[in-house]
Amino acid sequence: MATVADKYTFAQKIVRDAGGFLRQHLYDELTVEVKSNFADLVTHLDKEVQTSMTQQILSAFPDDLIFGEEDENRAPIEKGNVWVIDPIDGTVNFIVQKTDFAVLLAYFEDGVGLFGLIYDVTNDLLYHGGGEFPVLVNDEQLPFSTDKAFSQGLIGINAGLVEQNYAGLANFSRQFLGTRSIGSAGLSFAHVLTQRLLVHTSYVYPWDYAAASILGQKLGYVLLNVNGEKPSFTGREHVVLIAKSKVNEMKRYLQ
Ligand code: 2AM
Ligand code: CA
């Protein structure tokens, strides 16, 4: 029977292969479809990568389950061995900028996250680990979270969230040296892990935050919704990745 370590090695291979495929096809003519609104897009390559990753996982591990963004597989994470897939995180960047998009994969057993992967495709940086595995970017260990003051660092948040001041997120953002927004939740969470950002917050789905929550946990971060609770891992939510040591201070600014 496959061990978790076997699955982790397999996961690194299929995520790097998916990224390699996307790099090869970066300048192909894209078929683009609109999903929930004009800015929520999917291309034929999102779908191809979703299908390919799903098929590879299910042929290697036929009893496992899939929770994917771009197909009908939506297994709840609480039960069984569940792989959470976002084939392209930052599809708008993929279409318009040809950079700053990621392949995301996370693995859960009965709701417990055992490893996560965030692959920055054009920079060839694979953030991976969690659970029993150290958290690395490629082969380099990432640092434990810092309790640096908000006033000495940056928050990742998009303009729409600041404009809405949803749950006081704009008030919270004003405590930082500045805001940054790159249009990929996965990469923004990865930038918290490297400490380019102190915090990242966005309105996202489980496939956008699953890997980051597992990677972050191992380094002293916590991924919470804006009520300070663990997110549901079912629908879209406002979530924050932040050092555990800074959660109480954050709550002073959120309502
Ligand atoms: P996606 O590219 O996988 O959809 C900025 O748009 C970030 O928010 C991206 O990480 C994007 O992920 C995510 N996001 C989640 N839901 C979205 C939606 N309905 N429309 C646009 N972006 C969404
Ligand atoms: Ca996506």
TrEMBL record:
GO molecular function: inositol monophosphate phosphatase activity
Enzyme class: hydrolase
Record InterPro entries: Inositol_monophosphatase-like
Enzyme Commission number(s) of this protein: 3.1.3.25
Pfam family, one: Inositol_P
Alphabetical keyword list: Hydrolase
UniProt name for this protein: Myo-inositol-1(Or 4)-monophosphatase
High-level lineage: Bacteria, Bacillati, Bacillota, Bacilli, Lactobacillales
